[in-house]
Write a structure and sequence with these properties.
The chain has seven helices and 21 strands. The protein is of the alpha+beta class and 350 residues long.
Length: 350
């Protein structure tokens, strides 16, 4: 009798543990997930060390496309080298459940990095499928309309300091990131990233002679640099880009050199379309002439709020719908035991 009760208790415990695991998997796949912010590309909206809750109900959960994409279940494959090598081999086709809303401009979105989908990025969606994006003098234009910076965004300025010692003390008190100007012949010049509130406070401090928006210039070929940029971190993006139409499902475009420069990476990665140029300036795909291509899904243009400290769609292109994970809803907690940010607990993300 005692042995039977012990077996019943063990079986109940195992079933309870399985139920907990299945519930955790269900919640992570279909409802929400928690992410940690590693970099400052979204300051001050999000700070390094923030733990955020990402809603998968908002846009609808993207269903796993292989067993390796199922949380917890993929742990059984970690010791299988062949399974790990096949991580990009999809078993099931892309499907997404219906969401509570559609992705909108200014949403803060979590998605898989287009260059390496095993990494997760978070940026602000600044343009939707079909929008025309352009950046001029660091100002973002969508469909020819200038877009305001997010209220908490940090913008880089050139400042000329009249009292270096007082400036340093004041900048340290605000925890500002300050660096030297590229032209070292001007020792009074600094580059500093400021939110609107910090800009007002610093200008009122009496430590500056003047202040101007910091704009990076790289000659007359900015469009070609950005639209066909090298895919690597650590490069300051010039403050000129486009114009570029964000691809949408059904968008029909002519196949030519200009189109390939703008959309070549996207077409190769997510449309699996790699036409080859011919000596007579025509193009072929799989041995047949091709003049037009029609996109098969929607894409989104993502940018960080701190634009000189953000590797985003200006570098690696638009984000396909299939890589969208969810909408960042609120900060669960922020910091660590030594530097816990109580003011950010359960703070909404806008």
């Amino acid at each position: 009798m005692f042995r039977s009760l012990r077996l019943d208790n063990i079986l109940s415990g195992v079933l309870f543990l399985l139920a907990v695991i299945l519930l955790a998997v269900f919640l992570r796949v279909f409802v929400f997930e928690i992410y940690s912010i590693p970099t400052g590309s979204m300051e001050e909206t999000l700070l390094p060390g923030d733990r955020i809750v990402v809603s998968k109900l908002a846009y609808g959960a993207a269903l796993p496309r292989s067993p390796l994409e199922v949380p917890w279940l993929n742990a059984f494959f970690l010791l299988n080298k062949q399974a790990i090598a096949a991580n990009d081999t999809f078993v099931w086709r892309y499907r997404r459940l219906s969401g509570l809303s559609r992705l909108q401009r200014e949403d803060v979105v979590v998605f898989r990095y287009p260059v390496d989908p095993h990494q997760t990025f978070i940026k602000r969606c600044v343009a939707l499928p079909g929008d025309t994006v352009e950046v001029k003098q660091e100002i973002l234009y969508v469909n020819s309309h200038a877009q305001p910076f997010p209220p908490t965004a940090k913008i880089e300025y050139k400042v000329w300091v009249c009292n270096p010692k007082a400036f340093k003390e004041y900048a340290d008190s605000l925890r500002l990131l300050v660096r030297s100007c590229p032209a070292r012949r001007d020792p009074a010049c600094r580059i500093v990233a400021l939110s609107r509130q910090e800009k007002t406070a610093l200008w009122s401090s009496g430590t500056l002679d003047s202040l101007a928006l910091y704009v990076i210039k790289r000659g007359d070929n900015n469009e070609a640099i950005l639209l066909n940029a090298p895919e690597k971190e650590g490069n300051d993006p010039p403050d000129a880009y486009g114009p570029l139409v964000v691809p949408y499902e059904g968008m029909n475009i002519p196949v030519n050199e200009t189109m390939m420069q703008k959309y070549g990476k996207v077409l190769e990665r997510y449309e699996h379309f790699q036409p080859q140029p011919q000596p007579d300036s025509s193009w072929q795909w799989r041995g047949k002439p091709v003049e037009y291509y029609t996109f098969r899904q929607d894409y989104y243009f993502m940018m960080g709020d701190t634009r000189h400290n953000s590797t985003d769609s200006r570098w690696w292109g638009t984000v396909p719908e299939e890589l969208i994970t969810g909408k960042a809803k609120f900060i669960l907690w922020s910091g660590n035991l030594k530097n816990f940010r109580w003011e950010r607990v359960l703070k909404g993300i806008n």
